[in-house]
Amino acid sequence: MSDKYIDIDFAKLDIERQKRRGCSETVFCESKTSEQLIKIFTVLKNQGQNVIGTRASLEQAQAVKKIFADVSYNTEGRVLTLVQNQQELVGEVAICTGGTGDIPVAEEAAAVAKFFGSNVKKYYDMGVAGIHRLFDKIEDIRKANVIIAVAGMEGALGGIIAGLVDVPVIAVPTSVGYGSSFNGLSALLTMLNSCAEGLTVVNIDNGFNAGYSASQINKLIVKGK
Amino acid sequence: MSDKYIDIDFAKLDIERQKRRGCSETVFCESKTSEQLIKIFTVLKNQGQNVIGTRASLEQAQAVKKIFADVSYNTEGRVLTLVQNQQELVGEVAICTGGTGDIPVAEEAAAVAKFFGSNVKKYYDMGVAGIHRLFDKIEDIRKANVIIAVAGMEGALGGIIAGLVDVPVIAVPTSVGYGSSFNGLSALLTMLNSCAEGLTVVNIDNGFNAGYSASQINKLIVKGK
Amino acid sequence: MSDKYIDIDFAKLDIERQKRRGCSETVFCESKTSEQLIKIFTVLKNQGQNVIGTRASLEQAQAVKKIFADVSYNTEGRVLTLVQNQQELVGEVAICTGGTGDIPVAEEAAAVAKFFGSNVKKYYDMGVAGIHRLFDKIEDIRKANVIIAVAGMEGALGGIIAGLVDVPVIAVPTSVGYGSSFNGLSALLTMLNSCAEGLTVVNIDNGFNAGYSASQINKLIVKGK
Amino acid sequence: MSDKYIDIDFAKLDIERQKRRGCSETVFCESKTSEQLIKIFTVLKNQGQNVIGTRASLEQAQAVKKIFADVSYNTEGRVLTLVQNQQELVGEVAICTGGTGDIPVAEEAAAVAKFFGSNVKKYYDMGVAGIHRLFDKIEDIRKANVIIAVAGMEGALGGIIAGLVDVPVIAVPTSVGYGSSFNGLSALLTMLNSCAEGLTVVNIDNGFNAGYSASQINKLIVKGK
Amino acid sequence: MSDKYIDIDFAKLDIERQKRRGCSETVFCESKTSEQLIKIFTVLKNQGQNVIGTRASLEQAQAVKKIFADVSYNTEGRVLTLVQNQQELVGEVAICTGGTGDIPVAEEAAAVAKFFGSNVKKYYDMGVAGIHRLFDKIEDIRKANVIIAVAGMEGALGGIIAGLVDVPVIAVPTSVGYGSSFNGLSALLTMLNSCAEGLTVVNIDNGFNAGYSASQINKLIVKGK
Amino acid sequence: MSDKYIDIDFAKLDIERQKRRGCSETVFCESKTSEQLIKIFTVLKNQGQNVIGTRASLEQAQAVKKIFADVSYNTEGRVLTLVQNQQELVGEVAICTGGTGDIPVAEEAAAVAKFFGSNVKKYYDMGVAGIHRLFDKIEDIRKANVIIAVAGMEGALGGIIAGLVDVPVIAVPTSVGYGSSFNGLSALLTMLNSCAEGLTVVNIDNGFNAGYSASQINKLIVKGK
Amino acid sequence: MSDKYIDIDFAKLDIERQKRRGCSETVFCESKTSEQLIKIFTVLKNQGQNVIGTRASLEQAQAVKKIFADVSYNTEGRVLTLVQNQQELVGEVAICTGGTGDIPVAEEAAAVAKFFGSNVKKYYDMGVAGIHRLFDKIEDIRKANVIIAVAGMEGALGGIIAGLVDVPVIAVPTSVGYGSSFNGLSALLTMLNSCAEGLTVVNIDNGFNAGYSASQINKLIVKGK
Amino acid sequence: MSDKYIDIDFAKLDIERQKRRGCSETVFCESKTSEQLIKIFTVLKNQGQNVIGTRASLEQAQAVKKIFADVSYNTEGRVLTLVQNQQELVGEVAICTGGTGDIPVAEEAAAVAKFFGSNVKKYYDMGVAGIHRLFDKIEDIRKANVIIAVAGMEGALGGIIAGLVDVPVIAVPTSVGYGSSFNGLSALLTMLNSCAEGLTVVNIDNGFNAGYSASQINKLIVKGK
User: Fold this and answer.
1) Which of A7, B172, E13, F196 could be a cystine partner for E6, CB 3.0 to 4.6 Å?
2) Between chain D and chain C, are at least 3 CB pairs below 8 A?
């Protein structure tokens, strides 16, 4: 056995990541059985680490909570967290959505950003079809160190916001929509082709990586490197 | 020979269209030789019709103008027109572009809308990365009966405008951009997936159909049916 | 709280839209819970607005109707409407479909066009495989101010009609079909590439926007601007 | 050396095909040097076969004609033929195009159908934007044993014709168009998704296979099997 | 009411098709309710026509058979037929499949070809991974007037057969496969790109059109035009 | 009946394959009924062959095991095997996965490689996000004659390994992932575009062919040709 | 004239951007004439701003330099800069490439990052096929505040680096490659699907936005907000 | 400077690869200047290594040969080689092509396989449209240790061969074809979806990797591991 990871047959848990990357390994729950999840949570808890699992179904959450009473589950964002070492939240990440349907992805981003140590403020349903809603809030949004823009369908929100602020914007396309939205492809391409500087993009529905990246940048801005 | 069209071997000119559709047939120049164009202009002119050709190269334009001194050529929009029966221009079509690179498509739309009888006002370089430029002009734009929004790359302009006005907006995606713009696909999908009501879309770079459709609607609004 | 929208946490209802755009905000039901829908209907009703919800499931419809007895539900078109201020219907929008499978999208367009104030006439199953059915009706169809053409599979209907009339035609591709129809992509491309002037296109299965846009143009033709 | 093919290093000429398939091997000129073409024509001529080469450039044609005075070249269809054994032309294949730009592909189909023994009648520029041109000719077209429909852009022509006749229709999508025609993809999908029975499809711009298949069916209808 | 079609609100039944195209209209069952199907069968039966419905579910079949005892249902091919006027079967259509999974599509083609008057012979599981199975049967297959090749995954069967025979081959790609078969796209492209002359293609899983087209050609070969 | 295959109506079992290709035919269970599977297992067993079925559901496995007590089923890899002639396992195939979700495909590859005569060693969860796990094991992995790399999402594992070893690496993209992984397309393209020499690729989720190919190469290395 | 932008007919220069976004507007040269560029540089220079133009051809660069002697041109990165107000460079952005072909995009990123105020260190040809080159440099790379990873073909570099560091990584896919790299699509998908947290992505070949975003984050880390 | 690679600014030459992978680094010439190539050849030659460059243009080849007289250039395969240490050729790799147009890719594979130590035998123009040409040669082809199948258009050749032999087959799709071949996509998908076991695939037009991989396997079969 290595001192860098723990080999539990179906997985090799990267316990050195805390040191190497400044955070523990995140558990992607979607393709794992509840038994596998419990095993992983057990090992990581025993290492004294905070544990986070994303894309956890309600059924998985209930199975894990039966074993670990101190696990909490964000139903909308489908995020499981077990916090052993309370961390102070710093700075601010603003999370905006285009519509109501984008909220689950935004909630995942929010839960992740908080787990990794950032304050979060939410601005939901700011879609460009009624853009005065965005302008009404833009002064508040500008106060954040990093902004996450979550949008499906046409996906224009990220570019609009990036054109109005002087901090990094991370755009998350969602699979909300129908027809030629092609499960998020339309929003993804819109975001990649935005002319607004300072906008970077993550995978469709990947609230996790948006939350992680925004939190990482936010903390570096607050604490320096 | 039919009284509905004239058969000139490589083409069958739809001379009845004036009556049936309220406009003469438009000549798509791109896949025709200069000789074919001259033949078509000759026949349609002899029918006493106004003639319009789109996507005409400079070389084609020069060849046609050598024969017909009264033909004029819009260099940016690549439109050839021969007007025998002057038509009064009515109403107003507003044509907006996202960037400078979209101007050729906008010019095609403008030339076509005028040829078919509409006044045109142009608002260029209104891209969403500096959206105050749009807000500065929106009161003027709102005065038009129909709006054409021409944009490449992310293509968000059409949806933004449609969310701010109460008249029809016709969106034209352009092939301006690079990488994942995929020659206009990104802008096309953005426009099709806009949540803003009243936005309809034409083919990538199809300034012609945008100009025609906008002019058709504009004239119906002015004159009734 | 703004006087332009009402913030109910998961949504920001655009109550100024009536003034800005001449119509109230439409509720996209697909990604909302019944509780959210009821909340939205309550707020908008209290504002004295007419309310329309699209893509409402039967279950959602029943939940909303339990609270608001005066809501009506179009089962085929899946449209929920609550009309407090009766509006006179003007002009005429013709709605044509290629086949029987396209009817739900056509019904959505019809319900929306009526809600926003237009008379509607329906011409179903006019597919180009038996084109005499279309020719038999074309004189009637020509009387409309705007025509909506709804078709899946090859999607040629819109271009055929546009080639025969002198009013705007809005084409709606549908996801009806199989194999290389690729869930409506084939019909969408057909419509975008039509050579018939005056044809504009909306998203696959987007009966809502077709109905809205057609009604908007129809009313402008009848009433002027 | 086999008696079924002749091995000339860079190619293995299928001389048995005449017996096995009722026709000699066709030479696809596009990826061959003029030297290779001359070598192939020499071998096949020495076998006493008629020879046909498709997608031959003018330069290739001139190089081959310098050697074989009896070769003829169809400039529009880019087809090279060397006929040693005159064949009686039978039956009739009708070839229709949507527009003028589709003529080169139609000419390839025509040259090939004639080479393999069929009479050909041409009906060009029958596009659905002016569908009366098609109806004017349909009685003539119906007399053919097989119909080839060549069209780019929306590509609806094949389905319209197939819905009006009782003989097989072979549809050839062309790469004519721009924007979302995606080099013929739009027309290809339209044709594959047609609801009209009796329509089959070949590759984009593949006038050769359309001409071959139509001629094969035409001859079987005339002569039986 | 027209004497060319019967208008039953949700459908316009093309009763003139028998005269115009030599066959009655085929009913595409997939997007229709059982009530609609029964209505259509009733009308067409009353017209004295033979009736055929494709893509009929077992449930639809049972509903229709409850009303019309003389309807028969091909379970594998999901084809419903009601034959009032017995037709003599002529000639021969050979139907080959690549694998066992392609049989439902082949059965649809077979049922349709027979309904429209052709004898059918079946050759199943001839996939190119064990190509001696095909060579063992090729002499028999060659006797047919037309051959249908049904294959998913790589879809090479059609091209192989066309290279070995002197009659038309109609290729049907199927959605059998996984991964990069992309629901039949791989087989479709293979077939469209085949170098074998005489191969034409229909939509993915479209056994109906393959059966119809093959039967049409077969009958023309047997009976002449 | 041929001595090369056995014709059981819905299938033609390629019994000569053992001689021709050095292995019996593999049964693709996915599109077959349990009755068909039992029939096939019966025939092949009676031929004295070892039998293997892939993509067998639990239900299919239970049906077959009811008849053949000596059949065994790999639940994760969904592989059914019936071994009548025990074969000595030789050499070594190493099977690596990027994540836990890739294990079912890896298990299919492992079961197949063993069935065809190779020793297998497994290295799971070696994903590039914690690449020290791979480096920790690379000396062991290098001992194998052939390596299989199974990975979804970004799919970089295959290229990384191939850059570190001097034996062939077979990459299997999996459909694990979401959003722009497009069901394995992303991993497939990554693997095809790897700059690392010696990496070849099979279809998405095709553990079977990876296992077969690796075993074939491994045995040739051990035994020579 | 507005005090927020200067309208020069073909463009509306966003002079307020300096205040609003902390940087001047960047000029995208690709679709502009040299005359237009000179006009834009003149106006912005007169505003006392630093000016930067991207994707400038050599010809454009020479035309502009003829007018403004103090403009400098980065030939590999195709970036034109005119610096009137010298800015101190702070912090550090590391720019890594997969191969030699990715250098032009990296150079664009480097020139942009410097123009906007960041120190840059370059690490070229670190491709994963010889991953020891990366490990040899990783300690140096880790010292940067932000890392840009530029890679075409398989595009795995970004994910590998992000898995080894604790700062943000911005991945730029390039169009370097051939075949199924599909002009950068393969690398784009690889990067979007990376499991490594902290990796965000920009458009294919968009060195500009990578340089801008990295510089923006770098400066915020150094200076705080 | 590392003893594992030599850093020459624009490239880091992986000189340890010989030891680690059993072969020197291959130079991808396409995106390099002649000056860069000469520098790389100089360094690697000075290391005493054999050097190979792929996708070298004639112009690049001439520039390099001017400096190194002992470099040789394969014009069709566009491969540059400088051999300082003659290697004995062992075993046999068979290289088959579908058509004449595939020969350049086959020649690249051949040159590479020889450079890395394998005997090569070529079988060109074996396309499946005249499959007897393949059967005529199959006994010879079977004698090879590894087979490379190079084919564009439908790309069926690889699967056909793999179904007939008991050695590994590496399939190379080529971009030869037109229309829906989509620059090699059709052939790529055909090959990935083949049912024939033992077939693995490389990138479109990647003769290099096919030659390398085949040679690697061939040498392992001959020499063991």
Assistant:
1) E13
2) yes
State the pairing for strand pair G12-13/G6-7.
Answer: antiparallel
Number of domains in chain D: 2
pLDDT surpasses 60 at F60: yes
Domain match, B26 and B115 both: no
Residue F198, pLDDT > 60, answer yes
**Of D14, D203, D206, which is closest to H130 when you measure between CB atoms?**
D14
3-class DSSP state of B67: helix
Cross-chain residue pair F166–H197, CB shorter than 8 Å: no
Structural domain includes residue H1: no
Going by C-beta distance under 8 Å and a sequence separation of 6 or more, which residues neighbour residue F34?
Answer: F59, F60, F63, F64
DSSP chain A: --SS-EE-SS-EE-TTHHHHHSSPPEEE-TTS-HHHHHHHHHHHHHTT--EEEES--HHHHHHHHHH-TTEEEETTTTEEEE-SS----EEEEEEEESSGGGHHHHHHHHHHHHHTTEEEEEE----GGGTHHHHHHHHHHTTSSEEEEEE-TT--HHHHHHTT-SS-EEEEE-----GGGGGGHHHHHHHHT---TTEEE--TT-HHHHHHHHHHHHHHHHH--
Residues E99 and E175 in one domain: yes
In a domain, A13, yes or no: yes
D11 contacts H100 by C-beta, under 8 angstroms: yes
Average pLDDT over residues E46-57: 94
Last residue of a domain, one of B63, B82, B101: B82
Which residues on adjacent β-strands are paired with residue A121? A94
Report whether C187 contacts D120 (CB < 8 A).
Answer: no
Sign for the CA dihedral angle at C67, C68, C74, C78 comes to negative
Q: What would the pLDDT profile of A74-122 be if each residue is shown by its tens digit?
A: 999 999 999 998 889 999 999 999 999 999 999 999 999 999 999 999 9
B148 near G34, Cβ under 8 Å? no
Q: Which residues of B touch C195 (CB under 8 A)?
A: 28
Residues of E with CB under 8 A from a CB of F: 99-101, 103, 124-126, 129-130, 132-133, 136, 176, 178-181
Residue where a domain terminates, one of G82, G110, G140: G82
Expressed as residue numbers, the domain containing A170 is: 90-223
Q: Could you tell me if E32 and E99 lie in one domain? A: no
Distances (CA, A) of E214 to C204, D117, E32, E198, F44: 33, 22, 27, 13, 36
Tell me the pLDDT band of C225, cut-offs 50, 70 and 90.
confident
* B1 within domain boundaries: no
Residues G106-150 have pLDDT tens digits of 999 999 999 999 999 999 998 887 888 899 999 999 999 999 999
Cα angle value C1/C7/C10 (rounded, 5°): 155
| Regions of chain A short of the pLDDT cut 50 | 1
Q: Are A118 and A89 in contact (CB under 8 A)?
A: yes
Q: Are residues H178 and H134 in the same domain?
A: yes
Q: Closest Cα of chain G to B166: distance in Å?
A: 25
Q: Per-residue pLDDT for D22 more than 80? A: no
Across the interface, do D199 and E209 touch by the CB < 8 Å criterion? yes
Place of tokens 């990052």: G113
H74 shares its domain with H158: no
Is the per-residue pLDDT at E78 higher than 90?
yes
> What are the angstrom distances between the C-alpha of E171 and each of B134, D51, E135, E195?
54, 27, 18, 13
* Secondary structure element (H or E) that encloses residue F123, with its range: strand F118-123
The answer to the question of residue F68 being in a domain is yes
Domain CATH code at residue F155? 3.40.50.1970
The model's pLDDT over D146-167, given as tens digits with 9 standing for 90+, comes to: 999 999 999 999 999 999 999 9
Instruction: Tell me, yes or no, whether G129 and G202 share the same domain.
Output: yes
**C68 and C138 fall within a common domain:** no
SS3 H218: helix
